[in-house]
Amino acid sequence: MPGGCDGRKLAGHLRESRPGLRVLFCSGHSPDFAGGWMPEEEEATFLPKPFTPQGILSAVADCLRP
Known about the structure:
Distance between the termini: 30 Å
Structural class: alpha+beta
Strand order of the largest sheet: 1-2
């Protein structure tokens, strides 16, 4: 992303104006590595690449679940 922004920073900025915004993070790194920076209290779903259509559907359903 431009300007040195990453997904975590972008989510933080968006949540300032939209508290409670649900986020789905996706990365090409392994979940052990890429998900390690996400604190447990972070309300976000992590979808590692490569993913399947069923994996995307499941991740989106997790994000939408109350």
